[in-house]
Protein: 1,2-phenylacetyl-CoA epoxidase subunit PaaA
Amino acid sequence: ELTDEERRFSEIIAADSRVEPRDWMPDAYRRTLIRQISQHGHSEIIGMQPEGNWITRAPSLKRKAILMAKVQDEAGHGLYLYSAAQTLGITRDEITEQLITGKAKYSSIFNYPTPTWADMGAIGWLVDGAAICNQVPLCRASYGPYGRAMVRICKEESFHQRQGFEILLTLMQGSPAQREMAQDAVNRWYWPSLMMFGPPDDQSPNSAQSTAWKIKRFSNDELRQRFIGMLVPQAEALGVTLPDPHLRWDEETQQYAHSEIDWTEFFEVLAGRGPMNAERLRARREAHENGAWVREAAAEYARKRLDTRAP
Ligand code: ACO
Structure:
């Protein structure tokens, strides 16, 4: 027997309507959203590092201004997402604590290094491309604050993807060494970008329930497949080769067949053993500690203002 609250919640989900912060919701739904939204926010915050690394070295003033704007957008996305998570009852301190103690996950993709300028192109094209593919369906997620945050985030992500594509296009029209640098970056980012969509469907413990709750609208493998289909013509336009010798159109399934993804690498990165995991957390922790005086000053300022207003 369903309680009235449970029935009301099921009706909202069935009607493709939105669950709002003050509505009753099952605990497991709340926990799943806190998990996904906070991990998503952490990905944006940690995701500032691989590109922040290139702000001082961007090859022109214009490139620097664009890259700076992009990294600032990521900070903004992180903050909207943390705010959306806070509507579910977790505090900002708890969210931060989970990240800096290494308890929380964030996207595997940000644990790879960015040794060349072409990495800025590959990240925009592949990483932000994958992010859009995964996030456009999340605009219809059943939880209102999350879906609405996604709308603006996706608009900004499409600008990010265009700028990455354009960096690669410029390099591909340059010298042989520049073309080689672009291809090398694509070779390094292609497989990790496919891993962003998460484990294969038969190894994705959260998918069934998240789909039933209409948080997820497509499976990890479906979105990954859609992404590959998007990339093939774009790679042709760029003149880069996607580093998969077995990639081919399959008439029978009407989709691209591809080589096996190295899931061992994915699970190693998730376990904290990717090339940059330790460095990303170290830098995040250091930034948090260096910001302690700002938090203290802000709290003190707020306290004093309250004091002076008191009757
Ligand atoms: N990197 C790190 N962890 C991952 C990744 C990944 N690429 N993919 C899956 N995982 C984790 C899941 O978080 C889950 O761990 P948990 O249960 O401890 O939280 C576990 O692997 C199993 O995966 P699933 O059961 O498939 O998990 P889920 O249903 O949450 O699907 C997905 C994973 C598709 C990433 C989903 O959480 C999602 O759409 N999140 C929002 C988008 C997002 O976070 N993007 C971040 C990168 S894009 C950007 O910031 C630019």
Remarks:
- The first helix runs from residue 4 to 14.
- The chain has a mean pLDDT of 97.
- The pocket of acetyl coenzyme *A is lined by residues 35-36, 39-40, 43-44, 47, 105, 107-108, 131, 134, 195-199, 204-207, 210, 216, 220, 270 (CB under 6 Å).
- The longest strand covers residues 248-250.
